[in-house]
Amino acid sequence: MRPRSILSIGFAVAMLLVVSHGAFAGETAAPGKIDAKAAFERLKALAGDWQGSTGMEGVSASVIYRVGSNGTIVTETLFPNSNHEMMTVYFLQGDDLVATHYCAAGNQPHFKLDLAKSTPTDLVFAFDGGTGFDAAKDGHVHDGMIKFSGDGKLDTSWVFYAGGERKGANEFHLTRAAK
Questions:
Q1: Which of 18, 67, 108, 111 has minimal CB crowding within 10 Å?
Q2: Rounded CA gap, 93 and 163, in Å?
Q3: Do residues 97 and 39 lie in contact, with contact meaning Cβ atoms separated by under 8 Å?
Q4: How many C-beta atoms lie closer than 10 Å to residue 144's C-beta?
Q5: CB 126 within 8 A of CB 115
């Protein structure tokens, strides 16, 4: 075999390895898409205190994001230190980003990142069951979205279901609090 042919084959094999490694590592996601690990890193970057408003009345809202358990979870505490305090815990489960919401209503809906609908700026979470309620009858948070608006701003929307149908959504418009 001629040296030039060996070099060409070697280059082709090296390129194939680079491309196939990226595909298996989730590094070649379609433009505008995000994988679970990258989405989890976006959530980790939220660590800190956030202030803003929620609802049509613009009720004051406080949200705290914390990274815990050696970087394996992100906690989101809504209305901290109030009688309406709630927490959502986000974590990676295999190739999925999942979350459990510990609601003031006393139930725990579960969510999974919808990779087909999510982008680097919009993380869309789909309902994935839960405990402490009957989804066909009882009120519960059903799905939601976290939108990274840039410049230290964050918008979230969480849809509420009761009787098996959508009853409304709670939107939060937040700004990172000064340190």
A1: 18
A2: 30
A3: yes
A4: 24
A5: no
Q: Write the DSSP assignment of 144-179 as a string of letters.
A: EEEEEEETTEEEEEEEEEETTEEEEEEEEEEEEPP-
Low-confidence ranges of the chain (pLDDT < 70): 1-31
Question: In 3D, which of 125, 93, 124 has the Cα closest to residue 112?
Answer: 125
Provide the pLDDT for residue 30. Answer: 57
Phi and psi at residue 16, to the nearest 5°:
-60, -40
* Gyration radius of the chain's alpha carbons: 21
| Euclidean distance between CA atoms 160 and 54, whole angstroms | 14
Distance (Å, whole) CA 121 – CA 34: 9
Residue with tokens 């418009």: 173
Cα distance between residue 109 and residue 163, in whole Å: 15
- Is-contact 163 137, C-beta < 8 A? yes
| Contacts with 162 (C-beta within 8 Å, 6 or more apart), sequence order | 137, 138, 139, 140
pLDDT tens readout for residues 100-136: 999 999 999 999 999 999 999 999 999 999 999 999 9
Distance from chain centroid for Cα 54: 19
Q: Looking at this protein, which amino acid is placed at residue 73?
A: I
Summarize pLDDT for 79-88 with one digit per residue, the tens: 999 999 999 9
Residues in the chain: 179
